[in-house]
Structure formats: structure tokens, C-alpha cells
């Protein structure tokens, strides 16, 4: 044995032989263990006057007290306490000061249940982006390239925001929460994209797709018992692949021009058609008014003729003479000629009297 080479021949590595007890303080520089123990007892008596056994009991009681007090723990307002007994879930605790049996009997875990976590799919950002600055993101094509329902390829980058809704399920039912959320998000987005054509995906169906992905993700995570709630799914970029994006942009520009022309045509039609309809209504109402006026005038003339005819039957001579005079008045009323009846005494009129001038002055007034 190696210690047989030491001075003394049969002493062990601690300074004693096989048939003797260990020697304490055999060397000049080695401490004597008995002396060390005695010194410790003296110091203990100085600190705790009362002797050895009682001092040990006091120390044990103090240690036991500190051990019992170590079971107090605080749960913050944004946390949820989960108590484990020998590693098995026992109960949940609310925010505030709580107590559990000291370690190693019970332990407490306090995950933050109000913190909104984020998972990016199809892109990677640096620390600056997570702090809110406009950092350049890096595309991950193996995650973002997806096949649509009409067998086209679309490049989709999106983010998923989630929180913890059930702390025990979150801690014990899934091993890698972030990886699980990411895998579920990618598979769900591929399923929704595969059910739609590329044109609606690139244009007006983005919000609808986000809602569908959110609902399907929540359903899948609930089936896992993950204790995770999806708060939002936000598509950051939805574009065709980089190799054909220019052609797709030309198509989109042409579709935009087509839509603009269609809107202008609809606007012109919406302006012209009401005007034409209003003009038609005006013409129709004018025609109806003219018809009513004509019918009323005809009725009036017929009534007047019937009344004249009744008077004519009662006094034909007088009526005939009256009609003759009224007709002459209507016909000759606008002429500038003066007619003098010789038989009625017109011969006494002075020839130089300007009767025509009197008629003109009367017309002028």
C-alpha cells in the first residue's frame, strides 16, 4: 500500500496504523482535532450560556423556526401561484402573501399569467425589434412559403400573441410552450391558406384569415390542455414569392386600374340615371298638367257654348245680333281704320277729325 512507505511503516494515510486509532496532531503543522472540538465547545458556551446539550437544542429550535418561516412566499399581481408537494401539483394560490410547507416537502412556482408573449413565424427579428425599434427582420422561407388552394405559392410572415390562462396546465401538460405555440401556429396557417385562392389572400381576406387562424389555434391548444390563450394573430407580410413578385405587382396594378374604371363608370351612371329619371318625371308631369288644362278648357268651352245655345233658343234675334257685334269688336278691335256708318248719322262728322290718331294714342296708353 502507498502509506507503507511513510515513516513508521504501518501507519495509514491519516497518521495511525491499522490496529490503532487515528492519531490527531501527529505532525508539527497538523491541527489536533480534539483541540478544535474543545475550542468550538468553548465558543458555543460563550455565545449560548447554558451548556452543550441545551445549546444544541436552542440552535436546533432556531434552525427549525427559520426552516418553517421559509415557507412564506409572495405572489405578485401579474402572477399565479402553483404549489407542489413532493413535485406533484397540489393547489393554486392567488396574488398576495401565501404559505406552503417548507422545502423539500412543498415548493411554489409563480409564472406570470398577464405577460403577453410573442412568437414570430416566417421571420426573425433582433433585440432592437422586440424593444420597439424598426429593425430589419430576416425571412425564414422554410416557415413562410405556403401553398394556396389554387396551387400557387404565397410568402406569409405573421406573429402570434398569447398569454397563460391556466398555470398548472401550462406547467405540466406541455414541455415546450413556445415551440408548441409556434408549431400549432404554422400548421394552422398552412391549413387556412390551403383552403383559399391566392387572390383573396393577397387582397381583402387578410383579417378573415387572421380570425380563422386564431380560432383554430385556440381549439387545438385547448385539446392539448395547454393552458394558453391566443390573444391576437397578426399577418406582418403577405406577398407572392420574391421570384415572381414583380409580375404579381403588375397584375395587382392592372386590377386596381380595372376597379378604378369600374368605380368611375358606376359613379357616372349613378349621376346620369337619376338626372334622366328626374327629367322623365318632369316631362310626364308637364304632359299631365297640359292634358288637365286642355280638358278643363274644352269643358269650359262646351259649357259656355251650351249656355249660349240656351239663350239663343230663348231669344234668337237678340242673341244673333249680340254675337255679330262681339265678333266685329274682336275682329276690328286691333285695326287702325275708322268706319262711319252713313245711315246712322255719320255724315255730320267733320272730315278733318284725326280719328285714327286717337285710336293710336289710346293703344299707346
Give a verbal description of the structure.
The protein is an alpha+beta fold and 365 residues long. Among the domains are: 25-69, no CATH class; 72-109, no CATH class; 118-240, Tetrahydropterin Synthase, Chain A (2-Layer Sandwich); 316-364, no CATH class. It has 11 helices and 11 strands. The protein has helices at 33-47, 52-69, 127-130, 141-144, 167-172, 177-194, 198-202, 206-224, 245-314, 316-332, 355-364; strands at residues 72-75, 81-85, 88-93, 96-99, 106-109, 117-121, 123-124, 138-139, 145-147, 153-164, 228-239. Strands 6, 9, 10 and 11 form a 4-stranded antiparallel beta sheet that branches. The protein has a 3-stranded antiparallel beta sheet with strand order 3-2-5, with no helix packed on it. A hairpin with a 5-residue loop joins strand 9 and strand 10. Helix 6 (177-194) packs across helix 8 and helix 9 (245-314) crosses helix 10 (316-332).
